[in-house]
Design a protein that fits this description.
alpha+beta
Length: 138
């Protein structure tokens, strides 16, 4: 199997995790942010900057990343990459996260519904990832 990097965003009601990992589950780096009552207009630029910084530090070009994963425990408009109504974070209504990250990461991202790993799938060195439903932009 060819190895390739994945950039994953886990948008939760209390925290956001960002991870740069390989498709075999090896986490290169990760970061965590508080997401209690945050404003998406302030948080989205921070998330894009975090992803770009992770790629730069790891020496990986954004063009080498075939997919960006976004998991969220909320209703979503998957074809348009929009988080629509997260129950635990009312400020994150109708957030166009797919469009924003696509523009900021200079990638043409096409949303689809797939099973994919999220940043929390490999806690404390577990070797086999669990799958979680998520929006995936490839």
């Amino acid at each position: 199997m060819n190895e390739f990097p994945i950039l994953g965003y886990d948008i939760g009601g209390t925290k956001i995790a960002v991870a740069l990992m390989m498709n075999d589950g090896k986490v290169i780096t990760s970061e965590r942010f508080d997401n209690m009552d945050t404003d998406p207009e302030k948080m989205l630029p921070k998330l894009a900057e975090c992803g770009l910084s992770m790629l730069k530090t790891a020496g990986i070009s954004s063009s080498a990343v075939p997919g960006i994963g976004i998991s969220t425990p909320s209703p979503a408009d998957i074809p348009n990459g929009i988080i629509t109504a997260p129950p635990n974070n009312p400020k994150w209504r109708n957030v166009e996260i797919g469009k924003f990250l696509s523009e900021q990461l200079n990638s043409e991202l096409k949303p689809s519904w797939k099973m994919m790993p999220t940043p929390e799938c490999w806690p404390n060195g577990f070797s086999a990832p669990d799958a979680a439903a998520a929006m995936q932009f490839t």
